[in-house]
Amino acid sequence: MTRLDGTVALLTGGARGMGAGEVRRLVQEGAKVVIGDVLDEEGEALAAELGDATRFVHLDVRDSASWAAALKATHEAFGPVTLLVNNAGILTQAPVDATDEADLRRIYDVNLVGPFLGMQAVVSDMKAAGKGVIINVASAAAMVPMPMLAAYASSKWGLRGLTKCAAIDLGRYGIRVNAVHPGAVRTPMTAGVPEEMFEIYAVPRIGEPEDIGAIVAFLASDEASFITGGDFVVDGGMVLGPLPQAG
Question: Is 152 known to be catalytic?
């Protein structure tokens, strides 16, 4: 599969879990991928495993200087960025009245400010090329309200809105911007969650990183050339709610 031949991707939070699954799929499709993460050891190991099509760079998405360094490293390795995947994200669980202000700000910095800074960092490359794709990995929690996720869900609702505004602002330059909304996916973030809890949904299983990698690869490809500002929910039907009980 070589739908993404010639694509130079910068992907955040790519060292493990869902991000690593996205990296693997992009490489399989022919892309060159720079893996950005704060998990240096895991990121270096993944890049070594995948070979010449990848590089790892330490990237703190909260910091514009870190973005500039990652962009420079991408240019040196593969050339200008034509695909940005804002995958990095963090989560805490607490009701709104018990959410710590410091946690709220930390989550917003990673989940919302990070993608904003990333888009600003790569847009000049994409404008110069006359094309580009930005994929923001949000959450099913950006589609329906969920308990105990006040900080996380509101950051992802914000990312959903940012995606749509960016799609309007950048479309005239040949840049498409879309949001992917995963449900529960088998990653370190969901470790320990009993899998039988997902049997109540339309697709009765937890998601796999490969499920998210597949939609990311599609949106990055020319097959999605007329799609921008979209919400792509990949959650096995979680946002539809539990299956109704018979009788």
Answer: yes
